Amino acid sequence: MNKLTVKDVDVSGKKVLVRADFNVPQDENGNITDENRIIGALPTIKYLIEHKAKIVLCSHLGRPKNGFEPKYSLAPVAKRLNELLDGCVTLAHDVIGEDAKAKAAALKEGQVLLLENVRFHKEEEKNDPAFAKELAQFGEIYVNDAFGTAHRAHASTAGVADYIKTSVAGFLISKELDIMGGALEEPKRPFVAILGGAKVSDKIGVINNLLEKVDSLLIGGAMAYTFVLAQGGKVGNSKVELDKVDLAKELLKKAQERKVQLLLPVDNVVANDFNANADSQVVESMKIPDGWQGLDIGPKTAENFANVIKNAKTVIWNGPMGVFEFEKFAVGTKAVAQALAKSNAITIIGGGDSAAAVEQLGFADKITHISTGGGASLEFLEGLELPGIARLNDKK
């Protein structure tokens, strides 16, 4: 992680624009149902308060389509931040308008202003230079602490860095890069990666990159059925990508050449329909009967995977092992989560559904690191450059 962080610059008395990730889920009454992202932003904000900066926070929330939409307002976030930060937070009623400018101008050292949802402006996602320049007026220093959007080249995540000379990482991004970067570059071995989810096509780059680095790769979820087909097995009505079968063969060959243990399910829980209460049975992975579809890894596979995890020193996991939303087909995902929780390894979960699984099962405190960014984690694991991080100043 060769980027300057907020600790490397003098923030005292300076206006600091912070891109946070406050894209938090809410119920129909606007109550925040998961505040992990808000909690994750606190170390950086508190550091800036303690070091007497004048802090302007910005973030997106959801996908508003037509300018200001009340249900996408950051007002609930401002209220919660105010409770967590002893009342020093004000909300602007616009993003780059008169209210935001007046409130920013009035900020005293150690005070915090939260701008309204940056996506109320279409220019945000287009990374419009004029909009980025307007945002940049709020900071002499720019701090990006929104790992969840670091893979997006938007105005508030990348564009503003063109107009603010001092652009640095916050503590959350530093932590993500240190832990995940450390695991990829200098892992303690054996190094195990577990990939699940629906499509091989979503994870081609990740599999390719990880096959250069890991000792074992465990594949579950619907993406496994494309590999089963590639090995000549029968997949019944399971979800497969027929146009990726040859690619799956190539990846199996690459694993063999690089002496990586690539483990696929040996058994699966199959159902006669895609619903929570469908009839189910356990069958061998290569022999899924016609009219049945795989919805989870089976008990033998869960045991095989757990045994590999038990001996690992570093584990990265991204993607569920089955249809986790259906209780009946969440058993494999739970088994993997439990194996990680019991493990003595450095355990890293790359956001998304696997993170939700670990949270729901109450294992979060037993995991070394749960990433705050699903898409960003995937691109990082793929070895791609993240625009929101690339624009930050390098250490000399």
Structure report:
With 396 residues, the protein is of the alpha/beta class. The protein contains 13 helices and 17 strands. The strands form four sheets. It has a six-stranded parallel beta sheet with strand order 3-4-2-1-5-6, sandwiched between helices. Strands 10-8-7-15-16-17 form a six-stranded parallel beta sheet, with helices on both faces. Helix 7 (223-230) packs across helix 8 (245-257) and helix 9 (299-310) packs parallel to helix 10. The longest helix has 15 residues, at 36-50. It starts with 14 loop residues before the first strand and ends in a 6-residue tail after the last helix.
Summarize the structure.
With 396 residues, this protein is an alpha/beta fold. The chain has 13 helices and 17 strands. The strands form four sheets. A six-stranded parallel sheet has the order 3-4-2-1-5-6, with helices on both faces. A six-stranded parallel sheet has the order 10-8-7-15-16-17, with helices on both faces. It has a three-stranded antiparallel sheet with strand order 12-11-14.
